[in-house]
Amino acid sequence: MKIPLAWFALLPCLLISLSVHSAMYKWVDKDGNTHYSDIQPFENAGEHISPTINTTPAINIPEPQITEESSNTKDTVYKLLKITYPANDETIRNNQGDFSIKLEIQPALNTSQGHYINILLDNKITHNKLTGLSAQFSNIDRGTHQISATIKNKRGKTILSSESIRIYLHRKSILNP
Predict the structure, then answer these.
(1) 77-170 in CATH: which number?
(2) pLDDT exceeds 90 at position 35
(3) pTM of the model as a whole
């Protein structure tokens, strides 16, 4: 009779599972310290029975009820999100590192549905939850920067992203006046 190879794979699992149910021992030494071990230290050591673990049953969450009002309100579908100022590859000269950007959105931003705009400078959010079409930057380091914008819904999901533009910010320095 041939023994299937799968039985040989299950044998180590069976042996390991038997060792999981080994006894635990608890004793107090002469100094009053409590000790626990899976090896019986002496013959009169008492077997320790661990307390049961408290559990909580899973909560059933009901499905959201779709009402006529909620089914009729659909998210606005945006056709355009564009940074109109500054232009791509534009050079900005400002010794304080200040500049502004302007956006164009079609159709208009629907704030009643919780939509908002995030502005990213070098892939980091600098302006969060804007509802206007312009943003001001202050004290930005000189150099090349990427700017983009995203429209998000009230749950934070991106609805539309603009194309990224690149700007060059020039600031005077002592080394290069």
Answers:
(1) 2.60.40.10
(2) no
(3) 0.56
